[in-house]
Amino acid sequence: MRYWLPFVLIAIFAAPAWAEFDIETVDTGGVGASTDVALDSAAHPFVCYYAETNGNLKLARLSDDAWHVSVVDQAGDTGMYCSLYLDSGGAPHIAYRDNDEWDVRYAYLDAGAWHRETLESYGPVGVGISMMPGPAGFPRLSYIDDGDTALVYLWFDPENFQSFYVDGQSSVGGQATSLWVVSSELSYISYHDVTEGAMRLARGRAETWESTVVDGGEAVVGADSGLAVDQDGVLHLAYADTTNGDLKYATGTYGDMTVEVVDDAGWCGIPMDLALDGDGRPHVCYYDDASESLRYAYRDGGQWHRYVLEGGDHIGQDCSLIVDGAGVVTIAYHDAGAGALKVARGDASGLDEFTDDDVTDDDVADDDQTDDDGAPGDDDADSGFGGDAANSASDTDVGCGC
Predict the structure, then answer these.
(1) How many Å separate Cα 144 from the centre of its chain?
(2) Which of 111, 195, 277, 348 stands the most exposed, by the fewest C-beta atoms within 10 Å?
(3) What is the domain class of 12-354 according to CATH?
(4) Digit-coded pLDDT (tens) for 213-256
C-alpha cells in the first residue's frame, strides 16, 4: 500500500495544469518489478523499486525536473515487496524482502547515508510487505509469513521491537497485504484468506486483533488489495477477483462494507494499488492481463471513471499510486517488456474513458469469438490494442501476468 501521510503538506499553488498524464521512463535495464511511491513536502515523488537483473533495491527521486537514481541495498538478491514512506524531515524509509534469505529488511536514509538492518530473520517471511508510520513516526509493518501461511504485524521504536500473528486461523497467501494505521490503538490490515478464497480485513493493535470477511465464497478474491481510511473513518478497499478477472471495491465500516465491481472488461485487477485524494475519493491503478495494459480509475459521485494509460508489452505488471493535495496523480509502474521503471503524472482531464466494448476481449471468457453486441469478432478491434491478432496470446493467458 502507498500512503498519503497526514504530516505532508502539499504546496497546491505549485501544481501544474495537466491536460493528461505525462509519462517518463525513469530507469532501464531490467528494473521496476516491485514499486512503491511517496511524496515529499513539495509534492516531488520518490519511488522504491527492485532491479531484477542484478537483484538490487533502488530509489528514484524527482528533483529540479530530473530523476536521480541511487542503490539502497545490493547485498545479494534483495528488494522485492518494497514499501516506502517519508518521515517528517523528508527522509525515506523502506521495508523490503531479502530474496536470498527470505527475511524482512529495513533501510532508512540519515545524514546522507543508508542504514540497513534485518527485522525478521526466521524466514521464509516478507511476502506482501506494507509499511506505514505510527503516531510517533516509527514504522509499523504487515506481511505474510509464507512458511506458516500467517499474517504478521510488526512494530518498533528505539526501545521496543515486537511482532504478532494477526490471524492464527486462516491460511494467509496472495501477493500483498495492506496496512493502515489510524492511531496508537487502531490499525487495519487487508489480506487474502487462501482456504476460503476470501478478502479479509483485520482490525486491532499489537497482540489484540479481530478479523472479518469482506467478500468471498462464490469467487476467489483478495490476492492483491489496497486499503485506505478517510478522515471520517470510512474504509476504502480495492481488490482483485481472480475467478472472474475483475477489479472490485468495498467501502463502509468494519463489518459493514458495500461491494461493487470497478472493472470487468478484460482480465484485470492484479497487480493494483489504491489511494485517496483530498476529498476522500478513491483512485486505483491496475493491470489488465488481457490487453497487457496499465489502467487507471477513480470514483466520483458514486460512479467509476476508467482509462487506459499505456498499452503494449506487459505494461503495468506492478504499479503504485498516490494523489497530492492539488489532485495530481502519480503512478509508478513496471514496463516489463522494456525492463523499465516508468512514472505517469497528471490527471485524466484530457483522456477519453473506455467502455466494456472498447477493451473487453471476450475470447478470454468464452472462446467463441463473439463480442458484446453479439456479432462475430472481438470488440478489441477498435480499442487501440490491435484486435484479434494483437490479442491472440492474451486470449489464453488469463493469470496475473506476474
Answers:
(1) 16
(2) 111
(3) mainly beta
(4) 999 988 999 999 999 999 999 999 999 999 999 999 999 999 99
